[in-house]
Design brief:
There is one protein chain. It is built from 1 helix and 11 strands; from the N terminus they run E-E-E-E-E-E-E-E-H-E-E-E. Helices cover 3% and strands 26% of the residues. Strands 2, 3, 4, 5, 6 and 7 form a 6-stranded antiparallel beta sheet that branches. A 5-stranded antiparallel beta sheet has the order 1-8-11-10-9, with no helix packed on it. It folds into 2 domains: 81 residues, no CATH class; 102 residues, no CATH class.
Length: 215
């Protein structure tokens, strides 16, 4: 039967080697004209010192720094401080004030993300552990996409890109979440446990810059 999981982007669960708890978030800037960012969206470290969503499955050649948890900004219409699980995009904020994002940025943070397609069977899924993958390239499941009603990301892992050799892919599969309601390996929606490959805060980058290419 089909899995009950729906696309929810990346959910933090714990850090490698720790008990089931997240390591918290840190604050980063968002540009006032940045595209919408949904809760659970993977975000990249840009060349201008801010964070943003990636319009490609691989990160637009920039390193991922973590996963967006929410933000705070002064509303352009009401003039009041607003706390939201989503950044609505250009025109939302009073540009006289900083727009601050909260990001799960620990390089050892582990996340759950749904598969966008069948993994065939459990044995095949287990064989994918420690391999790398990209986000889905489908328009509704891409790294930058989300639900404008709930503010939640709809990003999923692209099963067709799972590869043991290509470490430039932004996700490393490190496990499978034990969930009886989402255990049909012949269907999409298997909850995979992943970490960020080539993290912006740790991996060497082209030219020694944190924003450098991931390949």
């Amino acid at each position: 039967m089909a899995n009950s999981n729906v696309a929810f982007g990346m959910k933090p669960i714990n850090t490698a080697g720790s008990t089931p708890a997240t390591s918290g978030t840190n604050a980063y800037h968002i540009k006032s004209d940045a595209s919408a960012i949904f809760q659970g969206s993977p975000v990249i470290a840009t060349n201008d010192g801010t964070i943003a969503v990636s319009s490609s499955a691989s990160g637009d050649t920039l390193k991922f720094i973590g996963v967006f948890a929410g933000c705070e900004y002064v509303d352009a219409t009401s003039g009041k401080k607003k706390f939201s699980n989503t950044w609505p995009g250009s025109g939302s904020a009073n540009t006289n004030f900083d727009i601050i994002a909260n990001v799960y940025d620990n390089p050892m943070q582990r996340f759950i993300v749904c598969s966008d397609a069948s993994l065939t069977d459990k044995a095949t899924a287990i064989a994918a552990i420690f391999e790398s993958a990209e986000f889905s390239a489908e328009s509704s499941k891409g790294a930058a996409n989300g639900n404008t009603t709930t503010g939640i990301s709809t990003a999923q892992l692209d099963v067709s890109t799972v590869d043991a050799a290509d470490l430039s892919h932004p996700l490393k599969i490190v496990g499978i979440m034990d969930d009886p309601e989402n255990a049909d390996f012949t269907a999409a929606g298997i909850p995979l446990i992943v970490m960020i490959n080539n993290h912006a805060l740790t991996a060497p980058a082209t030219g020694g810059s944190a924003e450098g290419g991931i390949s």
